[in-house]
Amino acid sequence: MRWHNETDGAVTALHAALRTYPAGEHRSRALTLALLAQLLLDMGQFTDARTMWRRALTGYPHLRSARTTAALTTVGQRLSRVGNPGTARQRCFPAKRGKGRKH
């Protein structure tokens, strides 16, 4: 049960950290929310994990960070195994427009 207690403590600490970030601190907030979602998934709290993931996605359009993209993608893939988070993912990770792509 020690692992469970440590995980609960980490979840509490991450929630506390989220309250300290300034409004414009999108990258740190997104990474913290992604980590929180991972821990909640590990604990079997799928609804709460999905909520944290969606909160992280709201700040994603303001970011250009491979680390954040990887973290959010990992959470999205894990969530997709337990339910369909596709609509939020499609809305926040749209196909990037670039050369050679027709839209």
Describe the overall structure:
This protein has 103 residues and is mainly α. It has a single domain (2-92), classed as Serine Threonine Protein Phosphatase 5, Tetratricopeptide repeat (Alpha Horseshoe). The chain has 5 helices and no strands. The chain has helices at residues 2-20, 26-42, 46-59, 66-82, 86-92. Helix 2 packs antiparallel against helix 3. The longest helix is centred in the first third of the chain and has 19 residues, at 2-20. It is globular and about 30 Å long. Residues 80-103 are annotated as: Disordered. It comes from Amycolatopsis sulphurea. Residues 94-103 have a biased composition (Basic residues). InterPro entries: TPR-like_helical_dom_sf (IPR011990). This is Tetratricopeptide repeat protein.
| Tally of domains | 1
Largest sheet: none
> Which structural class fits the helix and strand makeup?
mainly alpha
Average pLDDT rating:
79
Strand tally, please?
Answer: 0
With helices defined by DSSP (H or I, 4 residues minimum), what is the helix count? 5
Order of helices and strands: HHHHH
Shape assignment: globular
Portion in strands? under 5%
What radius of gyration results from the CA coordinates? 15 Å
CATH architecture tag: Alpha Horseshoe
Give the distance, in angstroms, between the N- and C-terminal Cα atoms.
52 Å
Helix amount: over 70%
What name does CATH use for the topology? Serine Threonine Protein Phosphatase 5, Tetratricopeptide repeat
CATH class: Mainly Alpha
InterPro entries: TPR-like_helical_dom_sf
Biased composition (Basic residues): 94-103
Organism: Amycolatopsis sulphurea
Protein name: Tetratricopeptide repeat protein
